[in-house]
Amino acid sequence: MAEGRMCNRDGFILTAMVLTEFSNVGVNTLVKSVTSKGLSPFVVLVYSYAFGSLLLLPLAFFSFRSRSLPPLTSSVLYKMGLLGLIVSAAQIAGYNGIKYSSPTLSSAMSNVNPAFTFILAIIFRMEKISIRKESSVAKVMGTLLSIVGALVVTLYHGPVLMSSHSDWVIGGGLLALQYILLSFSYLVMAHTMSRYPSTVVVTLVHNVCILIVCAFVSLLVEKDDPKAWIIRFDVTLISLVATGALNSAYYIIHAWAVSHKGPVYLSMFKPLSILIAAASTTIFLGETIYLGILIGGILIALGFYMVLWGKAKEDKVDILGSIESSPSQKLLS
C-alpha cells in the first residue's frame, strides 16, 4: 500500500516537473518578446512578480484557513527572504541574459544547474553518496550523462549558440550566473520547506521579496526614464500577466517537489528544457533540428532515467525500512 502511494506521488511529481520545464521555456519566450519591444527586463520582473503575488494572495489565505501551519518565526522569514534575494539576483541576470541572447541559449545554459546543485548538495550533506550503493552510482552517472547530453545539444546546435557576437557572449555569461545562483536557491528552498511546509506561503513571501528587490533595483536603473514603466494594453500586458502566473506556478511546484525529492532531483529536469526549446523553435520559428539535438536528447533521457531510478530505489529502501521498524517500535512501547 505504501509503495503504491509512493509510486503515485512520484508520478505526479514527475509529470509536474516536466510541465514546469515547458512553462519555463514559455516564460523565456514571453520575456524575449516583451524586451525585444523595448521594455526593460527590470520592469518586466517588477510587473510580472507583482501580478504573480496578487494571484497568490487568495491561495495563501485559503492555505492558512484550511490547514494548521507553524508560526512564521523570524528564522523562517529570514530563510524565505534569503531565498527571495538569491532568486532575485538569478532572475535579474537571467532576464537580462535573455534580452541579450535568446530563450534557446537560456535553455542550453541550464545544463550547468544539475552539476552545481549536485556538488553543493554533497558539500552541505543534503545528498549522501556511497560508491558501494547502486542508487548512488546511478545518480552520479545519470547527472554526468545528462550534463554531457546537454553539452552535446549545445555544441551541435552551436553555430548560433557559439557566436562571437558580443551581446551573445554577455547573454551567455549572465545566463550561466543565473543557473549557478538557482543551484544555491534549491538548497535554501529545501531547507525552508523542511521548516515551513506550505508551498503557497513560501512562494508568496518569496515572490514579494523578489518584487521588493527588483523594484529597488529598477528604480535605480530606470530613474532617468519614467516612460520605462508605461505598459501598453496589448500583448505586452498579457505577456506580463502570463509570466507572473507561470512563474508562481513554477515555484509552487518546485517547492512541492523539493520538499519530497530534494534539490538534486529538482535540478535534473533543467536539461529537458533544451529539447523543449529546440522543438518549440522548430515548430514555431522553422529552425532546423540538428543531429546533435537527437544524440544529446538520447543522452539526457538516459541520464534522466538513471537518476530517477536511483532516487526511486533510495525511497523504496527508506519506506521498507520504516515499515519494518514500526512493529518493533510498537512492541517496545
From TrEMBL:
Protein name from the UniProt record: WAT1-related protein
InterPro entries (UniProt xref): EamA_dom, EmrE-like, WAT1-related
Sequence similarity: Belongs to the drug/metabolite transporter (DMT) superfamily. Plant drug/metabolite exporter (P-DME) (TC 2.A.7.4) family.
Keyword terms, alphabetized: Membrane, Transmembrane, Transmembrane helix
Cell compartment(s), UniProt: Membrane
Claim: Transmembrane is one of the keywords in the record: yes
PANTHER family: WAT1-RELATED PROTEIN (PTHR31218)
One GO CC annotation: membrane
Top-level taxon of origin: Eukaryota
TM region(s), chain numbering: 12-31, 43-64, 76-98, 104-124, 136-156, 168-188, 200-221, 233-253, 265-283, 289-308
Domain EamA: 25-154, 174-308
